Amino acid sequence: MWKRIKYFSKFFIKNRESRNISRHMTTSTLNSVNETTKIEERKIKIDDVDINYLRTGIGSHPVLLLPGAMGSIWTDFKPQIDYLDKRKLTIICWDAPGYGKSRPPNRTFPLDFFRRDAAWACNLMKTLGYEEFSLLGWSDGGITALILAANYSKNIRKLIVTGTNAYIAPEELKIYEKIRNIDSWSNKMKTPFISLYGEEYFRRIWSDWVDGMKNIYDEKDGDICKSDLPKIKCPTLIIHGIKDAVVLREHPDYLKANISNSRMEIFQAGAHNLHLRYPDEFNALVSQFLTE
């Protein structure tokens, strides 16, 4: 009888320990899930400017996402914030000063505004405690990323750009003028920006952006950052959509020819916003590149 009592005592103790381990594993799993899905969005002062940024993920590889012209964290990178692997990556995204929630100040476009943004972005990451990080830039954000990777090379691990150009072609200047008046935009295209900025600010700042690009074309022969490209040494992924109506097909070829450690991926059905239209394919490509 004592043998039976000992047997059942051991059984119940082991069973209780098993339940405790299971409960601990479940709690740990839930905590891990909570940490990877946690999103922090706040402002921080960089060079006397209050910059709005987002941070999410627990990975050892920090990646800064850089939105495009008039863009913001949530208008430009929601599918990446939601679905990139937050166990391997820590994702940071910003509203460039004058865009999104990083206002005041109002946005301005001097000849060096891309270089100004690159300096702000690098200072943001250093202030947040990241000495080495990777970059993912779209459109204007891609230009900022090119300049940042070239001039702060010791801080950059890898670079990804999509829908990005290092110069302005004559045909592109004509495209900018055609879309200067937001009344020519579809409601689907302009409604998110009007919701974010109000129509008056959006209309004025967008027209100022066109003027800023025109000034670069007139004053610098369209050269935005061509001389920076040979200085980029980090592994670089150039992504482009064949149907991009804003950035011409010649640009990814030019980037690849002038960035030594680079490769190119073309989306045959992709347009300028291919990362929003085809997020699964885009995110898989980005994740593979960043973690390889």
Automatic annotation (TrEMBL):
Keyword Hydrolase carried by entry: yes
A Pfam family annotated for this UniProt entry: Abhydrolase_1
Alphabetized InterPro entries for the sequence: AB_hydrolase_1, AB_hydrolase_fold
Keyword Repeat: no
Domain AB hydrolase-1: 62-170
Protein name: Valacyclovir hydrolase isoform X1
Swiss-Prot/TrEMBL keywords: Hydrolase
Alphabetized GO MF terms: serine hydrolase activity
SUPFAM superfamilies xref list: alpha/beta-Hydrolases (SSF53474)
